[in-house]
UniProtKB/TrEMBL annotation:
Subcellular location: Cytoplasm
Boundaries of every PUM-HD domain copy: 44-386
GO molecular function: mRNA 3'-UTR binding
Cited InterPro entries: ARM-like, ARM-type_fold, PUM-HD, Pumilio_RNA-bd, Pumilio_RNA-bd_rpt
Sorted UniProt keywords: Cytoplasm, Developmental protein, Differentiation, Repeat, RNA-binding
GO cellular component, one term: cytoplasm
Any one Gene Ontology BP term: post-transcriptional regulation of gene expression
Official protein name in the record: PUM-HD domain-containing protein
Keyword match Repeat: yes
SMART domains noted in UniProt: Pumilio (SM00025)
Broad class of where this protein is predominantly found: cytoplasm
Ranges occupied by Pumilio repeats: 65-100, 101-136, 137-172, 173-208, 209-248, 249-284, 323-360
Length: 410
């Protein structure tokens, strides 16, 4: 076409511009490399396209102009973006023109840094027949793709787009390899998407993999940087019958998970999204070791989640913190780098009566708190509530001295 001829003319100019910039050392070491680049279809089609596309020097490029060069364009950063944009508005005929070349080279495109986006776009905007054909092209190569940086994205998009029968064909290739996927930086995303998009009754092979060796596998996965995400998806999307053995395994090792850098996120997830019974069991564990957990980097996050989500139980936890000792837990917590955030959260979630009790408990310790950088965080939080209460004309009898001492810290 005239457009394509114009592009090839521009490629000669582009070659001259790039020749000036070409590194002399590189050229002398491999003189054939430069000729190979300039004579390639990628250079003649994709390079000319980029210049014309950016500078609007020719009529807009159309899908018909890149036929026989679709793969080269799909593997080019700007060419891939062009195809993706065209697919969103293309007619069925135009999609088919592109698809024949894409399908013939599907595997190479699926693992390509730019080509994978073209495949994903076909799963999103292709015809039902095209989506099914691409889905079938995954067969026999599922595990290789699931563990590959770009291929894993293609499988995730496929799981959103194909019908149940094709989903099951993909899942069959994953059986026996679930744990390998879960622990892989790419494969874990595939397992998460499978759990999100496939009916729970089709996921029993995943649950069986996790539970067949008792609670140890679930505990280990919950403490794994990728496995913890998969366990959370199970708790979100699987049936109650499937979740119960997983939850029991978590409860059996709760004290270990609470203090783990990844396990604490799984525990927080149960607190926020689990049943009242499961939440109560976690609160009981926390309440029995409240000071130790509050002073722990990861466990302190679990306590904060308990305070936010545990309903009336927060009063029990606050009561444990206040204590009646020569040095009550709350004083130790206010000076601690992690526990001070728990005290702040207690002030935030407490009802007015409990908040006032906490203020009275903290008041005698304000002079000591001034000496600690973390204690000053508590003083700032107290000042906020004193000012709020005074503004709302709350009964501040007996608390004015505390308010004034807080103000003097500033």
């Amino acid at each position: 076409s005239a457009v394509k001829s114009s592009f090839l003319q521009h490629s000669a100019a582009a070659e001259q511009r790039l020749d000036v910039q070409w590194d002399a050392t590189t050229a002398s070491n491999d003189g054939g490399q430069w000729d190979q680049v300039c004579g390639s279809p990628v250079f003649q089609a994709s390079e000319s396209f980029r210049g014309d596309f950016r500078n609007n020097r020719t009529p807009p490029l159309q899908i018909s102009d890149i036929l026989t060069h679709v793969v080269e364009f799909a593997k080019d950063q700007h060419g891939s973006r062009f195809i993706q944009q065209k697919l969103e508005r293309a007619s069925v005929k135009e999609k088919q023109m592109l698809f024949e070349e894409v399908l013939a080279n599907a595997h190479a495109l699926m693992v390509d840094v730019f080509g994978n986006y073209v495949i994903q776009k076909f799963f999103e905007f292709g015809t039902p027949e095209q989506k099914a054909a691409l889905g079938r092209s995954l067969k026999g190569n599922v595990m290789n793709l699931a563990l590959q940086m770009y291929g894993c994205r293609v499988i995730q998009k496929a799981m959103e787009s194909i019908d149940e029968s094709l989903q099951m064909e993909i899942l069959r290739e994953m059986e026996g390899h679930v744990l390998k996927c879960v622990k892989d930086q790419n494969g874990n995303h595939v397992v998460q998407k499978v759990i999100e998009k496939v009916k729970p009754e089709r996921l029993q092979f995943i649950i069986n993999t996790f539970t067949k060796n008792g609670p140890d596998t679930i505990t280990q996965l919950s403490m794994h940087p990728y496995g913890c995400r998969v366990i959370q998806r199970v708790l979100e999307h699987c049936s109650e019958e499937q979740k119960r053995p997983v939850l029991e395994a978590l409860h059996a090792n709760m004290s270990t998970l609470i203090v783990d850098q990844y396990g604490n996120y799984v525990v927080q997830h149960v607190i926020e999204h689990g049943s009242n019974q499961d939440r109560d069991r976690i609160v009981q564990e926390v309440a029995g070791n409240v000071l130790r957990y509050a002073q722990h980097k990861f466990a302190s996050n679990v306590i904060e989640k308990c305070l936010i989500c545990a309903g009336g139980h927060h009063k029990t936890l606050i009561g444990r913190f206040r204590g009646i000792f020569p040095q009550p837990p709350i004083l130790l917590m206010m000076k601690d780098q992690f526990a001070n955030y728990v005290v702040q959260k207690m002030l935030d979630i407490a009802d007015p009566v409990y908040r006032k009790k906490m203020m009275y408990a903290i008041k005698p310790h304000i002079p000591v708190l001034r000496k600690y950088s973390y204690g000053k965080h508590i003083i700032t939080k107290l000042e906020k509530y004193f000012q709020k209460q005074q503004y709302n004309h709350y009964d501040m009898s007996g608390m004015q001295g505390c308010s004034h001492s807080v103000m003097r810290v500033q």
